[in-house]
Amino acid sequence: MVRLITHNLLACHAKNCNTNNFPLQLKDVQVEQREAEFNPDFLRGFMPRIEWKALVEAAKQVGDTSLPLEQPEMLDDEFLKQLHHVLLEIHIDEGALVCPNCGHVYPIMNGIPNMLLAENEIG
């Protein structure tokens, strides 16, 4: 399933697309909320890997504006619960991921992004 935790790790890998290929833009997405078990230790450990501006923008693209624009230094429970919701409970079931550089479209169907490329697109 595409969740924003996954989206935050994906970049375009099409042939000759190696600049401005992250973050992929979300297009025509259908979103579903699904509860997930809250694990504050996991979130604290994952924080250094997050590209914060990309996460905030992706959350906005799916209609969630709960995250602060700047990554907070204090990781209190209220913030961690907001982060948990955005990263792990927002599921993208249908739509597309679009490269901001080359425009390549990676379709999302049944919650799974198709990141495969045609042979002529492989670099």
Rounded to the nearest angstrom, the radius of gyration is 15 Å
Number of helices: 4
Structural class, judged by helices and strands?
A: alpha+beta
Q: Give the count of structural domains.
A: 1
The first-level CATH class name: Mainly Beta
Uncertain stretches: none
> How many strand segments?
5
Percent range of helical residues: 25-40%
Protein name: Trm112p-domain-containing protein
GO molecular function, one term: protein heterodimerization activity
Subunit structure: Interacts with TRM9.
Pfam families: Trm112p
Question: Would you write up a description of this structure?
Answer:
The chain contains 4 helices and 5 strands; from the N terminus they run βαβαααβββ. It has 123 residues and is of the alpha+beta class. It has one domain: N-terminal domain of TfIIb (Single Sheet). Strands 1, 2, 3, 4 and 5 form a 5-stranded antiparallel beta sheet that branches. The relative contact order is 0.30. The model has no long low-confidence stretch (mean pLDDT 94).
